[in-house]
Amino acid sequence: MTEITRQSLNEIIEKVKTKKISSTDLTKAYIKNIESAKKLNAFVTTTFDQALDKAQQFDNKPNFDQLLPGIPLAVKDLFCTENTKTTAGSNILNNFIPSYESTVTKNLWNNGSFLLGKLNCDEFAMGSSNETSHYGNVINPVGDHLVPGGSSGGSSSALAADLTPATIGTDTGGSIRQPASFTGTVGLKPTYGLCSRWGIVAFASSLDQAGPMTKTIQDCAIMLESMSGFDEKDSTSINKKNEQYSKNLKDNIKGLKIGIPKEYRVDNMPKEVDELWEKGKKILKDLGAQLIDISLPHTKYALPTYYIVAPAEASSNLARYDGVRYGYRSKQGKDLIEMYEKTRSEGFGDEVKRRILIGTYVLSSGYYDAYYLKAQKVRQLIKKDFDDSFKKIDAILTPSTPSSAFKIGEKTNDPVSMYLNDIFTVPVNLAGLPALSMPAGVDKQGHPLGLQLIGKALDEQKILNIGYAFEKNCGFKNEIKKWWS
Amino acid sequence: MSSEKFDYFIKGEKGKYEVVIGLEVHAQVLSKSKLFSGSSTKFGADPNNQVSLIDSAFPGMLPVINEECVKQAVRTGLGLNAKINNHSVFDRKNYFYADLPQGYQISQYKNPIVGEGKVLLDMPYGVREIGIERLHLEQDAGKSIHDMDPTSTYVDLNRSGIALMEIVSKPDLRSPDEVNAYIKKLRSIMRYLDTCDGNMQEGSLRADVNVSVRKEGDKKFGTRCEIKNVNSIKFMQMAIEYEASRQVELIENGKKVDQETRLFDTKKNETRSMRSKEDAHDYRYFPDPDLLPLKLEQKLIDDLKKSLPELPDKKKERFIKEYGLNTYEANVLVSEKEISEYYEEVAKLSDKKLAATWMMGDLFAMLNDKGLDISKSPISAKHFAELVESIKTGEISGRIAKDIFEIMLETGDNPKKIIDLKGMKQLSDPKELEKIINEILNKNKDKVDQYKSGKVKLFGFFVGQTMKLSDGKANPKLVNEILTKKLK
């Protein structure tokens, strides 16, 4: 029975539907795994009692027509969950219990699933290694010395270690795709506006997007279908009909045109990443796709642009954490201003402070034009690069990250080298496009590596189809040994 | 055309100074719910009872624009003869304060919803055109309450997120009187449009006042000071007078006026420095990424334009043309929508000119006395018209009319009933009048002789006696005629 948790979400759903396993037994199996995986530090909060209640309710009155019948799910601690503590990985929200449920998690629960716990993440989703969390760093099940990626590091770690059958994360500059790549799992950042941002603790509003993290492409399609949809409470939500991604999943990609951008390389990129890219190209070509060399000339400006736009928005989004209405409040301040200063000094960690300072700086009068305004212009050029390319191609194939998972502590004292990890993922957020990271192989140390498929806006189905075909022919198997229990 | 000349200058020892004033008026939009949330906007609720998760800036909350507030801003813009922008942008204005939960105010900075417009003021020295620079939509902040506890400040977020229109004038105003006329005109236009109730006591209309002075005839503006958040016209006028004199004194003493923000102390009747230009906030405006640019279809604007009510300027012209009023009368009678409606109802049923005179005299005096709005008048427009008509036909005299007016006020009866009941009808039967006059002339033969020998002043005595004997009911016109004939 313990093997159930090794299976894909789709297989588990089938087992529940055919009554081979009850929701309660399924939930218990995950609880057992979670309890024996404390070393990974993937969870900030567990909601076992509540989950078992929900499982029991499902078993008493099952509805097998739902997309996620009786499925327990752990989610990133950036999604506000009603009556369950939501920290965003920060001390400043260490006691915050929302009275409301984020639209995305509500959609999941409405499709038959329920909450198993809240997953660790970088503080306010600012980080690429899950080392900025106030609740301690998360360990990659791939190896006890490795980071799980970030910011959705608790999500990738929990998923790869079979602590949840699937999960959701948020992706502002790569926070779903990079951890997926580091743990040999699938991660999708949807088109900006496909999933509602309502109830998600905001980092950078024009870039944030929630998305699924799963073991297979099929699972990814099921999760995306369950969580997405128009929400009138989010003004940037796209008003369109929901799609049946899993039902429409096809592995025939014959004739599709795949763009290969020449700019997606960095100095000292490990040979394996290049080899993996070549392997990916070959697989797609063998499946009948046509490879086309393209150029995205403004790619090199994406990272600096991102590190102006995202901190600018963050500096404003995080102004509400002042200790007045909720969350942590310092007991030190003698007056209002001092209370603000102490609360925010004690409540935020270094990386968050760094970005608030950068963001405040680039928006300041006298610097606004040189930084923020210029970044917005470059952002348009980056988007235009993609728009121009997509006139002649269906999707773009790139590596997900310039390397496999790095060592814990390796980059904590060098923010810029940490930021460089997002170099292939960030342009996609700036352009608001959907992109998928799928496991494709391992490097010479045996650490997983992913490839990224970038699609046109709202073309999730197409990149899922390509991923589906790729997955069947890639032969990647995530061989994680359970060293932690 | 105008009888008076503009004459508001501050006299210094070295000459006369012109005062230049620009206003930033904050007008609360009349709408059921707030600008970006569904919370109620009703005034006077218990503290923190009209606050949503959005207004109190909980994590993950997002603003959604209230379309009614947008329409109200467009209507107001159209009422100010202004350009409506099809494309406008909401920006974040960032600053920390306890009553600003988000840490930023959502406002409009570079691309406001309404562009340039104008407002006309009827001043004793002629019509003045005051330019409108822009109108933009923004959120109101909450309220910090400092006087409930000796050591703590309380915050009430009921007001947090309510829609405001900031209406920025050009520096076209030149005196406290013009400021008074401007605010009243804005208020009147918005009340006609039903876009702001203009209630200054409840804070639905507040203003920041920019004041500078320059030597009469100078082309260049002086350095201005901004006086924050003055909440009555009287205080605005006092603040301007004080501030202009202060600036003139500085200049005359060879000192410089510093550009700064000042507060008006209503108790001491003075302005004092709040923060200098160097200490001015850096608000770090940037487009709010939670909101898409506001795009207005031309059709929406056209439809709103078609549905606008007749506004005071148009109505004034019509009143002059249709009812034969003079400019002064027309201005008074269109100043408030309710007054103009009352007048039109009266004018339709009675003499138009006489109706205006009686409304602006006795009716307004009474309402003023009782502190009532015309909408609460104890005398209905219909009854008032009947009263006016009775005066016009000579059924009652003006003096009697005043008595009847008082009785109407007490009883709410119609004037006809009162006239009949109290026998107050005017005595207009020449035979009866002749009888009375004969009696008086007989009793006062000596005075008749004196009159005939040249003491014509005594005419008034005979009129008075006739009125007295008839209990004031005698028709004065007829009495005059008969007396003139008899005393020949």
CATH top level assignment of chain A: Alpha Beta
Provide the β-strand percentage band of chain B.
15-25%
- Oligomerization category of the chains in this entry: heterodimer
Q: What does the main sheet of chain A amount to?
A: 8 strands, mixed
Proportion of residues in extended strands of chain A:
5-15%
**How many distinct folded domains of chain B?**
3
**CATH fold name of chain A:** Amidase signature (AS) enzymes
Query: How much is the radius of gyration of chain B in Å?
Result: 30 Å
Share of helical residues of chain A: 25-40%
The most extensive contact between chains is: A-B, 43 and 29 residues
The first-to-last residue Cα distance of chain A is 17 Å
How many strand units of chain A?
Answer: 11
Helix content of chain B: 25-40%
Ranges of chain A where pLDDT stays below 50 over 5 or more residues in a row are none
Strand line-up in the sheet with most strands of chain A = 4-6-5-10-11-9-7-8
Number of helices of chain B: 15
Please specify the SSE layout and strand pairing.
The complex is a heterodimer of chains A (485) and B (488).
Chain A: H1 9-17, H2 23-35, E1 43-46, H3 48-60, E2 72-76, H4 103-110, E3 114-119, H5 153-160, E4 167-170, H6 177-183, E5 186-189, E6 210-214, H7 217-227, E7 257-261, H8 271-286, E8 290-294, H9 302-317, H10 336-347, H11 350-363, H12 369-389, E9 395-399, H13 415-419, H14 426-431, E10 435-442, E11 448-455, H15 460-474
Parallel strand pairs in A: 2-3, 7-8, 7-9
Antiparallel strand pairs in A: 1-3, 4-6, 5-6, 5-10, 9-11, 10-11
Chain B: E1 9-12, E2 15-28, H1 67-79, E3 87-88, E4 91-94, E5 104-107, E6 117-123, E7 126-139, E8 143-145, E9 154-156, E10 163-169, H2 176-193, E11 205-215, E12 225-230, H3 233-252, E13 260-265, E14 270-276, E15 286-287, E16 294-295, H4 298-306, H5 312-323, H6 327-334, H7 337-349, H8 352-370, H9 381-393, H10 398-411, H11 415-422, H12 430-443, H13 445-452, H14 459-469, H15 476-486
Helix pairs in contact in B: 2-3, 5-6, 7-8, 7-9, 9-10, 12-14, 12-15, 14-15
